[in-house]
Amino acid sequence: MQTKRMTFPGRFLPYALLAPQVIVTLIFFIWPAGQALYQSLLREDAFGLRTTFVGLENFARLFRDGAYLNSLSVTVVFAVGTTLLSMSVALLLASTVNRMIRSRSTYTTLLVWPYAIAPAIAGVLWWFIFNPSIGIVPYILDMVGYRWNHRTSGADAMTLVILAAAWKQISYNFLFFLAGLQSIPQSLIEAAAIDGASPMKRFWTIVFPLLTPTTFFLMVVNVVYAMFDTFGIIHATTQGGPAQATNTLVYKVYADGFVGLNLGSSAAQSVILMAIVVALTVVQFRFIERRVNY
Amino acid sequence: MASITLEGLKKTYAGNVAAVKGIDLQIEDGEFVVLVGPSGCGKSTLLRMVAGLETITEGTLKIGDRVVNQLEPAERDIAMVFQNYALYPHMTVYKNLAYGLKNRGFKKDDIDKRVRLAAKMLEIEDFLERKPRKLSGGQRQRVAMGRALVREPSAFLFDEPLSNLDAKLRVQMRVEIKQLQRRLKTTSLYVTHDQLEAMTLGDRLVVLNAGQIEQVGTPMEIYARPATMFVAEFIGSPAMNMLPLDYLHTQGSSVLEHLPEGTDTLGIRPDDMRLTAPDAPHLAIDATLMLFEAAGAESHLYVNLAGSEQPTVIRTSGQPSVREGEMLRFYVTRDALHPFNSATRKRTGG
């Protein structure tokens, strides 16, 4: 890429122009992150009267704690489930919409709406739909002989949060997949048709491989979303229950810190989450330039 | 190998937009037919209808003895070379060539044999393991050709395959396509907007305009006896000059007697306007030289006819010693006149 070298008349101006971004980053990211790092090394007593320095004890405890390890596996199930579900539904919708000509923009507009809904509202929406006493889905499931109750069944609860979280992300994935599909030249599909490939075969041997960059990008974005951005949905539907079945890492930070008031442990958990985000970002930047590109 | 028969082929898009307005054409087995016309004349649509990429609104399309109107592209036993080559970017050249064979259930060693044979024929053996983006334009063009010929289809369809190449490569590939077709004797339908490409490649040309056939014939037939004013102006470069008969009459000449009935315009090719008087009876026209264009072996003289606004081009070989602004006299013999009627836009006198 061509970069243009700018020269400023004084030394002050460039710093002034950078300042807003630097200040925002410092106040809303670096400072809290520093606080969390510092907190994670401390232990506070139940009444907040005494604070002791404990080194890495908080971290050590976490990895000995069955509840934390459980939360880790819950998070993996949740993130993988959400990513798979939202991406496959989005890809299906995108390839269907991509075949339309005149109605394409209408469908695209409609399909983007869920993205505009706040996570908590989306949670409440699904909470109503799946409410064991008044919800429509449990009512229907009851007719086919399944007793839905996400308040007692961990599997039901997990299904519910995955559904709610995936639903919100479909719009985002849909837009990227649609853009990805539209950037595949029509003549490639036509050439494959002349080469005797059935529509399904064309999709799996031509379209899908050409979408890999998009798919990989979305995979990372979705995992990050599922791990960090779904607090509202879980809070509005299951609150981590029943019996910790939907207590993901990010929800546990809140539950332990603000409900359980174990600030040291909560801070240590957020430091671990931070490390995961950093790792995912590195993976994304490393791989998006290599391998996935054809 | 097969003939292709088009009977009253029509394509109408939604909103009653007619792109192809009834085409009758018989392409013989092994023949190389070029569809030529300006952009938007329906030539690509017509080719895509033959390929099965566009539905046929009306008419019958036969490849060999089979009516293929309703058949999928894959079932028509044709191969197509696209303008942008449409190579699969994530596959190696080898896989690009093998893809169509694999889909058709060919055996592995048969595929290998055919791919290597095609690669050898097109001199792309060294690139078989490369991906298309590592190839130059000409090499990609060869791969696209290779993909078409590995299957040994009954017909090749070409959709402006040379338009993405630079001028030098275009000439080279044009020659190669022609030689390849001569050798394989596969029925070919080739679409282009470049009249020079059309003239040099085709056994026969089909000149299309606004979704209809203007003229069908061998390149020389069309060049020597254009059936309509459109064809006359489209084929040949620089384009044929069209001079009103009334204007020429003021110059007076025995050459203008016995013209076919209805003639009111005379077409004269730039090459047929001579700067020296021939022995045969001729027409002499005075003109002012506006612009002199030297193009190496030939020169183009842009002139204004005396007493007329008609801009006219003359092509001569070599470099005549003339100056811009100078008055010139040029000569045209009887057999260089193409008589037309400007109302019907057709050639007069059959």
Automatic annotation (TrEMBL), chain A:
Main location group: membrane
Location in or out of the cell: Cell inner membrane; Cell membrane
Membrane topology: Multi-pass membrane protein
Segments passing through the bilayer: 12-31, 72-94, 106-129, 157-181, 202-228, 267-288
Keyword field: Cell inner membrane, Cell membrane, Membrane, Transmembrane, Transmembrane helix, Transport
Gene3D superfamilies: MetI-like
Chain ranges of the ABC transmembrane type-1 domain: 72-284
Annotated GO CC locations: plasma membrane
Keyword Transmembrane: yes
CDD domains membership: TM_PBP2
Family membership noted in the UniProt record: Belongs to the binding-protein-dependent transport system permease family. UgpAE subfamily.
PANTHER family to which the protein is assigned, alphabetical: BLL4140 PROTEIN, SN-GLYCEROL-3-PHOSPHATE TRANSPORT SYSTEM PERMEASE PROTEIN UGPA
Subunit structure: The complex is composed of two ATP-binding proteins (UgpC), two transmembrane proteins (UgpA and UgpE) and a solute-binding protein (UgpB).
UniProt protein name: sn-glycerol-3-phosphate transport system permease protein UgpA
Native source species: Vreelandella andesensis
UniProtKB/TrEMBL annotation, chain B:
Alphabetical list of Pfam families matching this protein: ABC_tran, TOBE_2
Protein name, UniProt field: sn-glycerol-3-phosphate import ATP-binding protein UgpC
PROSITE patterns to which the protein is assigned, alphabetical: ABC_TRANSPORTER_1, ABC_TRANSPORTER_2
Domain ABC transporter residue range list: 4-235
Chain segments annotated as transmembrane: none
Residues in coiled coil: none
Cited SUPFAM superfamilies: MOP-like, P-loop containing nucleoside triphosphate hydrolases
UniProt keyword terms in alphabetical order: ATP-binding, Cell inner membrane, Cell membrane, Membrane, Nucleotide-binding, Sugar transport, Translocase, Transport
Molecular function terms, GO-annotated: ABC-type transporter activity; ATP binding; ATP hydrolysis activity
